[in-house]
Amino acid sequence: RFVPQFDPADLASTAWAFAAVKYNHEPFFDVLASQAVVILDLLSVEELADIAWSFASMQHADGPLMTAIASPAGQKIHLFGAREISNLAWSLTKSLVSDIPLIDAP
Fold first, then answer.
1. Residue 65: enclosing H or E segment and its boundaries?
2. Which of 2, 11, 71, 101 is the most core-located residue (most Cβ within 10 A)?
3. Any residues with CB less than 8 A from the CB of 17 and at least 6 apart, and which?
4. What is the distance between the terminal CA atoms of the chain, rounded to a whole angstrom?
5. Residue 98 CB partners (closer than 8 Å, separation 6+)
6. Distance between CA atoms of residues 34 and 38, nearest Å
7. 56: left (phi > 0), else alpha (psi -120 to 50), else beta?
8. Residues 11-69: pLDDT tens digits?
9. Other C-beta atoms lying within 10 Å of the C-beta of residue 51
10. Beta carbons of 95 and 87 less than 8 angstroms apart
11. Which of 84, 82, 80 is nearest to 50 (CA)?
12. 3-state DSSP assignment of residue 94
């Protein structure tokens, strides 16, 4: 089966679009999660927050993905605006990921 290779903006936009219309196709979100983990370091703070929000809002809060998002988010925390911080915080809380290095970020 064909699985597209997304660039960071396309991946974040696609995840957001599926979540915005409440279309929860679990196999597709699994593909998005696996691709997101591979390109995490390339994601902007907005893309990190949007992906986290999308997965959490669809109750497809993939633990490994959310934990993985926390690392680059912690490194880029100084770049986050209010929207990104609030979306990321809500998403991590909603996903119930407890071992988050982001909490200790400066």
1. helix 63-75
2. 11
3. none
4. 43
5. none
6. 7
7. alpha
8. 999 999 999 999 988 888 888 898 898 888 898 999 999 999 999 888 876 578 888 88
9. 29
10. no
11. 84
12. helix
Instruction: Quickly tell me which residue has 């605006």 as its tokens.
Output: 81
Residue type, 93: T
Q: Which two tokens stand for residue 85?
A: 């911080």
Tokens representing 106 are: 């400066």
- Provide the residue type at 73 as one letter: A
| Token pair 């497809």 in the structure block, residue | 60
Alpha helices (runs of H) in 6-44, residue ranges in sequence order: 8-20, 26-38
Q: In whole angstroms, how far apart are CA 35 and each of 50, 83, 90, 97, 106? A: 15, 24, 22, 20, 28
Phi, psi of 6 (to 5 degrees): -95, 145
